[in-house]
């Protein structure tokens, strides 16, 4: 027994050493290939030997990560990459482990590394400084432009567009309820289960609200936070609280099925996030805004293949098919929803409709333009507002709209 | 009645006998057999659940933990943290003071370190800042350790519950601090502190960022080893641990020993927090301790408070953890897969202590 063990250990050590040697060989060849392309753009890589690294906050059991994984798979299919060219690291928390994972992927010879969670950013930035020849792309972050690093990039989908459309679906449902006499126009109150009280979430629920308001003028909304991205129990509890608070429709910006499950039990229609919620709430789920990350992943990896620079900030919506809403649930949605959705999506695509149209909302009773002109706290938004709308995600890929508009009550701190 | 008589007459098939003495070689042979058996069982589980070749999975673990220079250093860094906490727990556990509050003591130390980095990052030279960080985080851990000790000494409160509850208080304090330090606001994360200036970061020594982690933890290990083994105070700790009445009879001030020992224990755990924050993560969150305060208890007990064994055990546990990351990405297995393997290994390793302390005597043939 002892002998067998020592043989096993010896084998393990030999392989470890061999693997170690292999790594250093990879490094030197990577260094050589990058030296060739020091004239600003990196050398074009071929699809056969490019390596892609991905750092996920969760794993396939969690909606947000599952959406990213689907995007990576789509990219691999589009560009013809094989499985062993993609190294995926799952359940990497937002601490030094993210840095460890990033440099480990770099040392394994990855040409481009993606990280998916907001809190990964500072660690990815740290790794990007150490490996200037490797492209680092971070989803939902905002520091790439300010970092001055050519190899650091941020990306996001214009999910607010999809939220706006899902808001339209919700507004039509509210209209139907008003017509049927289930509620009066004044009772059209939406409850929103938010994760954290910062720009990404605020921008999301504002666009959702504006979508609903575009078809149902009397709608109001109450937002409560769970202070977690994925806490099934808390999301269910918050949803129940909102329902108890006379909300007649629930939406969410958090990652689990907690809220839709609560809505199914309470018989309240709801709009999900990321994934089709009809599996847990067949009689409540209307639709879910969802990201199609494959568009970006294909774009970014293609850039590396072509030796082109990747956009420092990338954010696309319906125009590039980077966001969508899941099929509208006919059993719950109001009649004619599909036609309206098509119309709104087309308007967003051709640019005739802007989500944050400043004529559609007020803040403390005055328009955003007036507030900016007055100066004070709102002066900082001056760069974002022109041509009658707030230019969300144009200056940087991450959402920036963090104003609580009239009609929304948020128990923010 | 008659039935019982029949049974008691017959000797049981096997019975446990406490060993008087076991040779070191024999004890280690039993442990090695346990490791080998656990690897076999784990292999069976791997095959049954994942249909993967278990040898390859094991090689993946080895590769993940020590497959490249950087991986070796990450493994060492994590190992040093775990070792430091286990060393910190040792005096308390030797005294039979069930300190399960290392988690909280680490968090308090880490929070203190983060505070120093944030508020004094640009105001003093780095060496001075590091000294301040160690002193302050040690103090923070000390305070968190001494509170339950005082209550234990004077009011005989239950230290297990007390230290456990203080963990949650520490977590709330961290959450509270994050409100002030979060960047950007509302995101609930602090991000890397002083990313540009590296103020309060451990300096790179001999070309490696983690050299100082190793030096500090090994010094603490050595000092605690000498303190426990050769100092009068160390002896007092073991006497109090064995029997408080004996200690009193021998003229030892039990209250004083309890409080003093928990000050040391808490301070070392606090410094472990500083090693994590200043030397590795450069951030603070409620998961900074990450359950290591509990894992370290296993390390301390499995090593029977022997610092050398602690290096081995913490090395082994971290090895498995680091390997798990590689296994997860290489085989598409969830990281829970390697938790299962670690669990099986621990089960056998802890289980084999039974065979080291006891032996089984079987009924001899022909005996009535």
TrEMBL record, chain B:
InterPro entries: ABC_transp_permease. Pfam families: BPD_transp_2. It is found in: Cell membrane. One of its GO terms (molecular function) is transmembrane transporter activity. The keyword Secreted does not apply. GO terms for cellular component: plasma membrane. The chain crosses the membrane at residues 28-49, 72-93, 105-121, 127-149, 161-181, 201-228, 257-277, 308-328, 340-358. It is a multi-pass membrane protein. Keywords: Cell membrane, Membrane, Transmembrane, Transmembrane helix. PANTHER family: ABC TRANSPORTER, PERMEASE PROTEIN (PTHR47089), GUANOSINE ABC TRANSPORTER PERMEASE PROTEIN NUPP (PTHR47089:SF1). This is Branched-chain amino acid ABC transporter, permease protein. It comes from Roseburia inulinivorans DSM 16841.
């Amino acid at each position: 027994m002892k002998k067998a063990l020592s043989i096993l250990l010896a084998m393990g050590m030999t392989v470890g050493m061999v693997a170690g040697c292999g790594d250093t060989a990879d490094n030197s060849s990577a260094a050589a290939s990058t030296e060739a392309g020091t004239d600003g753009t990196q050398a074009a890589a071929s699809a056969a030997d490019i390596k892609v690294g991905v750092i996920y906050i969760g794993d396939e059991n969690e909606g947000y990560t599952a959406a990213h994984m689907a995007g990576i798979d789509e990219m691999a299919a589009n560009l013809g990459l094989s499985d062993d060219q993609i190294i995926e690291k799952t359940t990497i928390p937002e601490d030094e482990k993210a840095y460890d994972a990033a440099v480990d992927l770099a040392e394994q010879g990855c040409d481009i590394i993606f990280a998916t969670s907001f809190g990964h950013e500072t660690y990815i930035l740290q790794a990007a400084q150490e490996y200037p020849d490797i492209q680092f792309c971070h989803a939902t972050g905002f520091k790439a432009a300010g970092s001055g690093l050519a190899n650091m990039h941020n990306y996001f989908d214009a999910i607010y567009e999809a939220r706006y459309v899902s808001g339209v679906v919700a507004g039509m449902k509210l209209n139907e309820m008003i017509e049927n006499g289930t509620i009066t126009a004044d009772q059209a109150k939406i409850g929103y289960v938010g994760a954290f009280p910062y720009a990404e979430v605020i921008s999301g629920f504002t666009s959702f609200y504006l979508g609903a308001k575009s078809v149902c003028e009397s709608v109001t909304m109450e937002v409560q936070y769970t202070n977690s991205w994925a806490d099934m129990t808390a999301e269910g509890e918050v949803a129940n609280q909102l329902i108890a608070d006379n909300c007649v429709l629930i939406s969410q910006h958090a990652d689990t099925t907690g809220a839709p499950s609560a809505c199914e039990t309470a018989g309240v229609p709801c709009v999900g996030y990321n994934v089709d919620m009809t599996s847990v709430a067949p009689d409540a789920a209307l639709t879910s805004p969802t990201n199609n990350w494959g568009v970006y992943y294909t774009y970014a990896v293609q850039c590396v293949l072509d030796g082109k620079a990747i956009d420092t900030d990338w954010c696309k919506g319906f125009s590039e098919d980077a966001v969508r809403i899941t099929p509208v649930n006919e059993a719950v949605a109001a009649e004619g929803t599909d036609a309206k959705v098509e119309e709104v999506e087309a308007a967003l695509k051709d640019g005739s409709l802007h989500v944050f149209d400043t004529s559609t909302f007020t803040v403390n009773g005055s328009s955003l333009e007036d507030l900016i002109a007055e100066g004070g706290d709102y002066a900082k938004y001056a760069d974002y507002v022109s041509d009658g709308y707030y230019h969300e995600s144009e200056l940087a890929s991450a959402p920036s709209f963090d104003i609580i508009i009239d009609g929304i009550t948020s128990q923010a701190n | 009645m008659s039935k019982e008589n029949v049974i008691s007459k017959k000797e049981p098939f096997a019975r446990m006998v406490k060993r008087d003495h076991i040779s070191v070689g024999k004890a280690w042979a039993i442990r090695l057999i346990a490791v080998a058996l656990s690897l076999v069982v784990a292999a069976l589980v791997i095959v049954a659940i994942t249909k993967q070749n278990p040898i390859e999975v094991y090689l993946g673990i080895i590769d993940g933990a020590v497959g490249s220079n950087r991986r070796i250093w990450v493994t060492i860094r994590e190992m040093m943290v775990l070792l430091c906490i286990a060393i910190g727990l040792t005096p308390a556990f030797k005294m039979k003071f069930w300190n399960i509050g290392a988690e909280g003591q680490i968090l308090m130390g880490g929070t203190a370190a983060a505070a120093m980095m944030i508020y004094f990052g640009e105001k003093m030279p780095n060496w001075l800042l590091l000294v301040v960080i160690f002193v302050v985080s040690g103090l923070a851990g000390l305070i968190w350790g001494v509170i339950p000790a005082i209550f234990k000494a004077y009011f005989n409160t239950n230290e297990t519950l007390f230290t456990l509850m203080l963990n949650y208080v520490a977590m709330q304090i961290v959450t509270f601090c994050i409100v002030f330090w979060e960047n950007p606001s509302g995101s609930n994360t602090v991000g890397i502190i002083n990313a540009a200036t590296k103020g309060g970061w451990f300096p790179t020594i001999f070309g490696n960022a983690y050299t100082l982690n190793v030096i500090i933890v090994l010094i603490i290990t050595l000092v605690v080893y000498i303190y426990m083994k050769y100092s009068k105070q160390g002896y007092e700790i073991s006497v109090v641990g064995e029997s408080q009445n004996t200690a009193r009879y021998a003229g030892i001030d039990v209250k004083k020993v309890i409080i003093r020992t928990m000050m040391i224990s808490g301070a070392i755990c606090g410094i472990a927090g500083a090693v994590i924050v200043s030397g590795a993560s450069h951030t603070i969150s409620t998961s900074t301790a990450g359950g290591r305060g509990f894992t370290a208890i296993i390390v301390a007990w499995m090593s029977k408070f022997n610092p050398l064994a602690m290096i081995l055990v913490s090395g082994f546990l971290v090895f498995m953890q680091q390997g798990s990351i590689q296994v997860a990405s290489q085989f598409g297995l969830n990281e829970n897969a390697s938790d299962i393997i670690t669990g099986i290994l621990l089960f056998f390793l802890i289980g084999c202590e039974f065979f080291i302390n006891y032996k089984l005597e079987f009924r001899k043939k022909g005996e009535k």
